[in-house]
Design brief:
By secondary structure, the protein is mostly helical. It is built from 6 helices and 3 strands. The chain has a single domain, classed as dinb family like domain (Four Helix Bundle (Hemerythrin (Met), subunit A), Up-down Bundle), CATH 1.20.120.
């Protein structure tokens, strides 16, 4: 089986689960945090909505240099902001993955901060580690935020106590 088909199946399943979570974000509480060191809800939700863009970045570039990367998270003003961003970036990621071969996924991708190399990995490993696993981590955080705000948490891999 081609790697792009395996990754596409997982991406589509996880994108649907992520969308269910984003539909529940109470954007009127964008500044809420569960702890002083935590990211505010609105920024976390937007981060979850846009992580799929990293699939496109990894496949379309050879590296990410944090010293040259100007990353700004703006909180959403509406739930539609989150959903539209998520849907747009998922569509881009699907198109990019569809257009790659197994050889493309074996090419090296580097994450760095100036001269410091953080990762130098085949693109298929970078996708799993930096895009997919990163999404799961932050989506899990978002589910805790929702629970603490008494927002019904949707199931990702089966029902929750709210369903």
């Amino acid at each position: 089986m081609l790697l792009n088909q395996l990754l596409l199946g997982e991406l589509k399943q996880e994108a649907a689960a992520t969308r269910k979570m984003l539909e529940r974000v109470p954007v009127d509480k964008n500044e809420w945090t569960p702890h002083a060191k935590s990211t505010p809800l609105g920024k976390l939700a937007m981060h979850v909505a846009e992580i799929t863009s990293w699939v496109t970045m990894i496949m379309m570039t050879d590296e990410l240099d944090f010293k040259k990367f100007d990353y700004k998270l703006l909180p959403p003003t509406t739930v539609d902001d989150l959903l539209n961003k998520h849907d747009e970036l998922v569509a881009q990621a699907v198109a990019v993955l569809e257009g790659n071969t197994n050889d493309d996924f074996e090419k090296k991708w580097v994450m760095r901060s100036g001269d410091h190399i953080i990762y130098s990995l085949p693109k298929h490993v970078a996708l799993r580690r930096f895009a997919f696993s990163h999404l799961f981590h932050h989506r899990g955080q978002l589910s805790v935020y929702l629970r603490l705000l008494d927002v019904p948490v949707p199931g990702m891999y089966g029902p929750t106590a709210d369903e």
